[in-house]
Design a protein that fits this description.
alpha+beta; Ribosomal Protein S5, domain 2; seven-stranded mixed β-sheet; three-stranded antiparallel β-sheet; 6 helices; globular; disordered N terminus
């Protein structure tokens, strides 16, 4: 819901925006995907996107989202809103509320609002996002992780946010996105606090720690998956208190690759290759050079 700023709010915003140099009202960043080795599946808080368990992932630098984020004033045009374009296609923000949550949280941080539900996020500032990926989106390759991490990282630079605030922005957009804020081996701590301030991502090892490690992405299907990760997690939590019932994303091709890797390792008499899947049929194979 749009509302007009009070004089006090307007003066505060002008003061903050005065610190943003004109050439810095647009930022372009490149952020990689991350592939989980220890996954999180299910949330203890849907609104704050707080996971039920810790998770661990590798960032894959060669697959990324290159994203441009602009911040604009719409004082004289209250009908304008946030805009998001992904690979040339405009996103309907009425159908995808995750972007709005991130933008509203960023506006709250800008205005130092004490309101925790975003209702006081002022509409006189809008965000424009143009993101392009070099991999299929919504196909189980952590596209949302790279996308929302890129948005959060760009907003961090635009508004001079702290690392923790940027991590929160990424997390409320897509949980695993906070892991893409770290390089190398990233650890997302589930945390225990109700407000989620201890649910952050940290780097366990930099990407240079294991220089011989290679990752091979095997794409069986580029189409959008039938069941999204968010819906899959919700169904799991609702239908099984032990989380033993999982949504089946793997295809016969996925299982064939799994069998091939096990056969390869058996012939080598040691583990030379490992595999992992995100919420989709496409595989990530890890090997040493």
């Amino acid at each position: 819901m749009f509302r007009r700023m009070t004089n006090e709010e307007e003066n505060g915003v002008r003061s903050k925006l005065a610190k943003i140099e004109p050439q810095n009202t647009t930022v372009e960043v490149t952020v990689p995907i991350n592939i989980a080795l220890i996954k999180y599946w299910g949330k203890r808080d849907e609104n704050l996107v707080l996971p039920l368990n810790d998770s661990l992932s590798f960032t894959i630098d060669s697959l990324f989202a290159r994203t441009t984020v602009s911040i604009e004033s719409i004082k004289d045009d209250a009908q304008r809103g946030d805009e998001v374009t992904i690979n040339g296609k405009t996103v309907d923000l009425r159908k995808n509320s995750r972007f709005g949550k991130v933008f509203d949280e960023a506006r709250k941080l800008l205005y130092n609002s004490s309101d925790n539900n975003g209702s006081n996020a002022n509409s006189n500032i809008v965000f424009k996002v143009d993101s392009r990926t070099n991999f299929p989106v919504a196909a189980g390759l952590a596209s949302s992780a790279a996308g929302f991490a890129a948005i959060a990282f760009a907003i961090k630079q635009l508004l001079s946010l702290s690392d923790d605030d940027a991590c929160r922005l990424a997390r409320i957009g897509s949980g695993s996105a906070c892991r893409s804020m770290c390089g190398g081996l990233a650890h997302w701590r589930a945390g225990v606090l109700v407000n989620g301030v201890d649910s952050i991502s940290v780097s366990r090892f930099p990407s240079s720690h294991w220089p011989s490690l290679r990752c091979i992405i095997v794409i069986f299907n580029e189409r959008e998956k039938d069941t999204g990760s968010t819906v899959g997690m919700q169904r799991t939590v609702q239908t099984s208190s032990l989380l033993k019932r999982r949504i089946q994303y793997l295809t016969e091709a996925s299982w064939a690759l799994i069998r091939a890797i096990h056969n390869f390792n058996d012939k080598q008499n040691e583990v030379r290759a490992a595999y992992s899947f995100d919420a989709g049929p496409n595989a990530c194979v890890f090997m040493e050079r």
